[in-house]
Amino acid sequence: MKKCLYFICPTDCLESTIQSTFHQENFFYSSLGNSVNFNECELNQAKQLICDKGIREISFILADDNRIVLDALNEQRFLNVTGLKKFYSQVLLEKEYLEILWQIQNPHFLILSSFLNKKIEELKKGLSELMVGDFNLSGKIYRKKELKFDDIFSYKIYHEEFTLN
Questions:
Q1: Residue 123 and residue 136 in contact, taking contact as beta carbons nearer than 8 Å
Q2: Which residues, in sequence order, are CB contacts of 136 under 8 Å at separation 6+?
Q3: Which terminus in the chain has less CB density within 10 A, N or C?
Q4: Which residues touch 3 (CB under 8 Å, ≥6 apart)?
Q5: Cβ atoms < 10 Å from Cβ of 104
Q6: Is residue 109 within 8 Å of residue 64, measured between CB atoms?
């Protein structure tokens, strides 16, 4: 049976939705807004779980109406919650960058995609020695109104540089 580790936010309450959508053996790692800091301790715990359970697929998921991300973009009522200050500044910086780059207002899906892509890259770097063979890392955004999981935008879509003469 396929085994997957999901990095999720507890405020999204997606565990049962994931269980009923993805019929496999599922494992969950929760952090507010998927703000997990991949320090040595967190990476060792992830490696231990991946090796012990034979996990070959990892996915980062956020709901499109994630309370923590929305708070970071708006009121910032949870700014003083342990670990969220850095997360909030990352989200706001990404919003600024994407609004300039894409010149659109409220690039919410892009912000979520960009943030999850960065988390994927952080984890990929930390797990590089385990990533052989058919290992899969992905990101999804759950659209609650449509009851649907969408793949995040590719990292290259909005970070690839080019110049025009």
A1: no
A2: 56, 57, 58
A3: C
A4: 24, 25, 26, 27, 53, 54, 55, 56, 57
A5: 9
A6: yes
CA 110/CA 157 separation, integer angstroms: 10
What's CA 82's distance to the chain center, in Å? Answer: 19
The pLDDT of residue 6: 97
Query: Residue 47, class by beta-carbon neighbours within 10 Å (0-12 exposed, 13-18 middle, 19+ buried)?
Result: middle
Do the strands 25-30 and 136-143 form a parallel or antiparallel pair, or are they unpaired? Answer: unpaired
pLDDT tens-digit series, residues 121-154: 999 988 887 666 677 899 999 999 999 999 998 7
Cβ 141 vs Cβ 152: under 8 Å: yes
Q: What totals of helices (H) and strands (E) does the chain contain, helices first?
A: 6, 5
> Among residues 94, 92, 63, 95, which one has the least CA distance to residue 79?
92
For the chain, where are the alpha helices, taking DSSP H only? 15-21, 40-53, 67-73, 84-102, 108-126, 155-159
| CA 23/CA 114 separation, integer angstroms | 27
Q: Is residue 80 predicted with pLDDT exceeding 90?
A: no
